[in-house]
Design goal:
Two copies of one chain form a homodimer.
Chain A (H helix, E strand, L loop, with lengths): L3 E8 L10 H15 L11 E5 L11 H8 L7 E5 L4 H15 L4 E8 L6 H9 L14 H15 L4 H15 L13 H6 L2 E3 L2 E2 L9 E9 L11 E10 L14 H14 L8 E3 L5 H10 L8 H7 L15 H4 L7 H13 L13 E8 L4 E9 L7
Parallel strand pairs in A: 2-3, 2-4, 9-10
Antiparallel strand pairs in A: 1-7, 1-8, 4-7, 5-6, 8-11, 10-11
Helix pairs in contact in A: 1-2, 3-12, 6-9, 6-10, 9-10
Chain lengths: 393, 393
């Protein structure tokens, strides 16, 4: 089948922007993506679009896809809104790949957005809850920090995972985010800071939780037969994989892993014909610190139960064997729900283009992005590689 | 590229079902679709799913796709929620075709659902409004009947379209719906009834407006290389097309047509290499009577301004040259928003399988479905044909 290539990606800053609208943020991301294309592109060349958003705040719950693409100048182009909670735009990128491989489109925009900072505390609780199981989680008072706290407790009980391991995720991701000009919380934090923050949902404290954010991000995906028009240095989307699961955590057999992530990774590695050892970097879904540790295990970076030791070893820091969340991750870069998956692709594009500045991974040739919806009701994984990457699988 | 085939489709009844949930309705539709496959299929053979829903009532706003597919027994299968307002599951079917053509899936479920009957009158007004332009339509009090009333007024002012033409759409669709056991309003109505109903938004009266509905519908789409496992009488999805537009009606140059429908039809006819004269039947988006008249013109069934004369001629009645909305359409069959597009595909499947009972179109070999989001912010068109259909374009 026809191969799909990533020719550009860009994002707005992540943060709280009361003077911006969801439309203006998305347009900023489209412009940044367009500007990033090495040999140039104009918006008129885009012939299909997929937009991810949860719709926090309810400002445009229906047709929010066309509402933002029309504003960004994609007149009349088919646009489909995709929603799988926090994995919305990771799935939008997957749809872009399907559209390219199907031959039904040549140049596809895949992006997402969210505006969360203008909601009241109650509204935020509501909107963050809607991706949990409604009847038996949200309506009975379970929050997302509560759900992930249960996962963390289970992991700590079953393995030798500690609060310090959780805090080390925060320290690492803040160290990376401090090097990312788009990051919402672009400051470093010490292990002491991270250990002593107020509890949110035991054992998770404030530094073990990502912020709520405004922001947008976009990727541009094209077919192999047109890629030369846009770049001399093509980045192939070598693998895409996705999986689903019961939406409620309580409906699953085990709390110490996310089966949808494993299914997605297996499919993506299979399509790309690579394994975790072949990766130079990864952006993983660290909505809570425990989520990053689970990702290490679900994506095969280490054995089940070994993630605490992996973060402790420094292997996932910048300069380590497999740097994870060089962008700062959801923790430091921010987590505007619908934008997050596409935002991870922005980091992959920058790393593989050698344009990640102070956080550049040396000789980055192949990277992975991993985006989770809710507590694991859906997950999507992509593998990106430069043409000169060598498969050593 | 690999061809996509429709091997089955099924739906729940449309109506008000207080004892059902969105999950049970969707499961009923999955079971009906599975049962319709001529040579049989089991749910485990499905390897990808797309689910359309607007999320009316907000009962599961995030991850509603996996929430229903897991309940229907599709364990772990990648599932993506697709939302383009009332065209949600029409776009889900389009995504199924892209997934098949991409080679990334072999057997795809595309469906949708909505539960609307348990909302209060105010909540219904809110949820029906969310697919309008939020800032300048919904929040300033414009309803969907108001938006389509503006289109009707414009058409009546510019051409010789009358209230009686609108009423004839209702009379025809109720006559068809009376023959459909799944229809919500499965009774006939006289021209006098339709003409004398209370006004909703002048010039539209009650019989010019579709009801709010609970319901679900699903289609099963497979690749050409596996279609023989499921049927000896394959129905090819010969054409798929989509278009977008500004979400607000006021943002468009003209009110007497829906540009997104024209774009979608052009693309679908082009891919199928057929034209409107080659169709044996069509299911079009008649959320309001004027919408069916606009569809006649946008889909090329007649010239601009001639739709009043076309409905008057009887050509679109059962037994006419081009029967339209043999299912009863949104008007009589019902309009559970997220289910509607897939529900149209159910009718196409029944007609092309010769299983439409009293409303069977004789010798039906090729048919079209047309699904609109909002007042035309998005539209999607599909052309289905039996292998023995002759293109006479």
């Amino acid at each position: 089948m026809r191969d799909a290539y990533l020719i550009g990606a860009g994002q707005s800053d992540y943060g709280a922007f009361p003077s911006e609208s969801y439309r203006s943020l998305f347009r900023t991301a489209v412009e940044a993506a367009v500007e990033s294309v090495p040999k140039g592109i104009v918006v008129d060349e885009i012939d299909e679009a997929f937009v991810g958003t949860l719709g926090v705040g309810g400002r445009q719950l229906g047709l929010s896809g066309p509402a933002v693409t029309e504003y960004a100048g994609l007149d009349g182009v088919p646009c489909t809104r995709v929603e799988n909670a926090c994995a919305a735009s990771g799935f939008a990128v997957r749809q872009a790949v399907q559209a390219i491989k199907s031959g039904m489109a040549d140049v596809v925009l895949a992006g997402g957005f969210e505006v969360m900072s203008d909601a009241s505390s109650d509204a935020t609780k509501y909107w963050l809850g809607v991706s949990g199981e409604t009847e038996w989680e949200r309506l009975s008072g379970t929050t997302f920090s509560g759900v992930y706290a249960q996962m963390a407790s289970a992991h700590m009980a079953e393995y030798d995972t500690t609060r310090e391991h959780l805090s080390r995720v925060a320290v690492k991701n803040h160290a990376n985010g401090a090097k990312n000009p788009h990051a919402q919380l672009g400051f470093e934090c010490s292990l002491e800071d991270a250990q002593s923050a107020p509890v949110v949902a035991d054992p998770l404290n404030l530094y073990h939780c990502c912020p709520t954010s405004d922001g947008a991000a976009c990727a541009l995906v094209v077919g192999e037969d047109v890629v030369d028009e846009f770049t001399d240095d093509p980045i192939r989307i070598a693998g895409v994989g996705a999986g689903s699961d019961a939406v409620g955590l309580f409906q699953r057999d085990s709390y110490v892993g996310i089966p949808a992530s494993r299914r997605a990774a297996e499919a993506a590695y299979g399509m790309a014909d690579v394994g975790p050892d072949d990766l130079d970097f990864a952006e993983v879904h660290d909505c809570f610190a425990i989520a990053e540790l689970l990702a290490y295990e679900d994506l095969g970076f280490c054995e089940r139960g070994e993630s605490g030791r992996l973060i402790e070893s420094g292997a996932t820091e910048l300069g380590g064997d497999l740097p994870v969340n060089t962008s700062g991750g959801l923790k430091s870069k921010g987590h505007p729900i619908g934008a997050t998956g596409a935002g991870q692709v922005v980091e992959a594009f920058k790393q593989l283009s050698g344009e990640a500045g102070d956080r550049q991974v040396e000789n980055a040739r192949r990277g992975l992005t991993h985006n989770v919806g809710g507590s694991g009701g859906a997950a999507v994984v992509h593998v990106f590689e430069r043409e000169d990457a060598e498969a050593s699988a």
